[in-house]
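ugh ok fine here u go
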Amino acid sequence: MRYPRYAIIPSNGRECLKLCLEAILPQVDLVFVVATDVVDLLEGGKVKVLSAIGDPQNISSWWNYGLDQAEMWASVHRPGPRIPVSGDPKFDVAVLNDDAIVPEGWFDAVSGTMRQMGVAAGCSGAHGMPVLHTQNQAPPLATRMQGFAFILAGELGLRADEQFIWYCGDDDLGRQAAMAGGMVMVPGFHVNHLYPNGQVSDKLMSAIPGDMQRYVDKYGGRPW
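structure:
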């Protein structure tokens, strides 16, 4: 079954946002752009712009803002007749960096495997066979959840831990997903991540040691 599909993209308006949107829009029902600065983008059609201008620079909070909006949208805009149903409506939500260019078929491949296996999250990039993580431990670096492009089973209500300002939030969320049923990395479907660490300013650089220490405090060891 194909569940409603959403994507969340925090962005300060870099030119790569348009490339990101061009790649993901054909694969989802609606995109929430969390605008962290002035974004030259008209809302309409399959794009909704959420203003986070003036908020502290915290990528975990931006993800959560988008996830909250996707959850509300999925609850109100259920497909089919408006009749009572048991449990929360199921929906899939991708979280993308604005410089992540997903290939054709990426959403089908990741969400399809995620739903078939009944797990909480998924990403692409494995070699050969799908890799499944279900333990409360840091996975090997090569098979950790790709923080620049991943999908969550939205109805499970997973949220980023906002104590992680810039680093380690994706590692924490991948670990949450593993404990909530599993995180699967599917083979192939390489995502072109254009500018890794391209927005790490001096201010963010100074926050990274604190993020890492907070992760160690939470889990007893580093994620990588």
